[in-house]
Amino acid sequence: MAFDYKKEYKEFYLPPTKPCIVTIPAMNFVAVRGSGNPNDEDGEYKAALELLYGIAFTLKMSYKGSHRIDGYFEYVVPPMQATRHLARRMKWASRLGNNCLKFCKFAKSKRK
Questions:
Q1: Are 87 and 102 in contact (CB under 8 A)?
Q2: What mean pLDDT is predicted for residues 24-43?
Q3: What tens digit of pLDDT does each residue of 55-65 get?
Q4: What separation in angstroms does the CA of 56 have from each of 16, 36, 38, 59, 110?
Q5: Of the candidates 44, 53, 64, 84, which lies 20 to 30 Å from 99 by C-alpha distance?
Q6: How far apart are CA 14 and CA 7, in angstroms?
Q7: End-to-end C-alpha distance for the chain, whole angstroms
Q8: Degrees to nearest 5, angle at CA 76 with 6 and 60
Q9: Dihedral through CA 34, CA 20, CA 3, CA 79, nearest 10?
């Protein structure tokens, strides 16, 4: 049966009803970094998302090919996750909108 991160790590994917601090253990990820407006149809964010899904599904389906990846296990591609922050500190950050965002999109690549 394929490893499902959402089921195995419920404490990370299903937040509690009250705010709390969650400690995430060390894990391996595939990640891309970029900047720009995530709503831009031809932007860097959309390209990064397409790249990550392409890599995640290529790895997932690799067992069907002739090359075997050491340590490979079948898995369900987990939801993409991202961190975002403003490119620089500014007094009127709320007026900048999404164009000044930097991002890091990542997908879990291997259980540890």
A1: yes
A2: 81
A3: 888 888 998 98
A4: 28, 23, 20, 5, 11
A5: 53
A6: 9
A7: 18
A8: 145
A9: -30
Look up residue 100 and give its two tokens. 């000044």
Query: In which band, very low, low, confident or very high, does the pLDDT at 94 lie, cut at 50, 70 and 90?
Result: very low
Beta bridge partners of 106: 31, 81
pTM score of the predicted model = 0.65
Residue for token pair 């419920």: 10
Check if CATH label 3.30.1490.100 holds for domain 3-13+28-110.
no
Hey, where are the domains in the chain? 3-13+28-110
